[in-house]
Amino acid sequence: EVQLVESGGGLVQPGGSLRLSCAASGFTVSSNYMSWVRQAPGKGLEWVSVIYSGGSTYYADSVKGRFTISRDNSKNTLYLQMNSLRAEDTAVYYCARVVVIGWYFDLWGRGTLVTVSS
Amino acid sequence: AIQLTQSPSSLSASVGDRVTITCRASQGISSALAWYQQKPGKAPKLLIYDASSLESGVPSRFSGSGSGTDFTLTISSLQPEDFATYYCQQFNSYPWTFGQGTKVEIK
After folding, report:
1. Are A20 and A72 in contact (CB under 8 A)?
2. Neighbour tally for B43: CB within 10 Å
């Protein structure tokens, strides 16, 4: 079955760090563009980051310099390393697969909740 | 960054109604626009890509149109399962951005 499963969310204090994982099955992460999208409680969707199949990465201005997207090809898993976390980073984080012919997210995980609070 | 403004932000409609949601981009994005449906507690679901292409498995009552700066999502005959929040998203340039969402509620 083709699916994405996020993990690693939880409660973290402001200034802390957290690493999210997104395990893929049914397809190869490294052959695809993969992205993270977040949604603060009761709010809309916000794109966070993307990693190309070739390894190039892009970030939203709100997380640039604090978050790092990466992947482990041997584990077929996408990651989001989040440092210097702020209260405004509190959100459900979704990983998603990008289809580059047509450009869209065709496959989403169920999300993992990150809460930044003291 | 390209801003996407959806209108209306919310609407009330009845089953069987024709519903139109508009997404306006702050600058031209060609046809690099997708539409998603999201229900509470669930991940978004792709409806339309490339502004007007219907995703496989999505009912034909959903349609998209537009290019450049003005885009429309139309539901030709609203069904009970269509009550949800709808988002547009542009892929023309970084940072990729979403509209603020349109909540479709039952009248």
Report:
1. no
2. 22
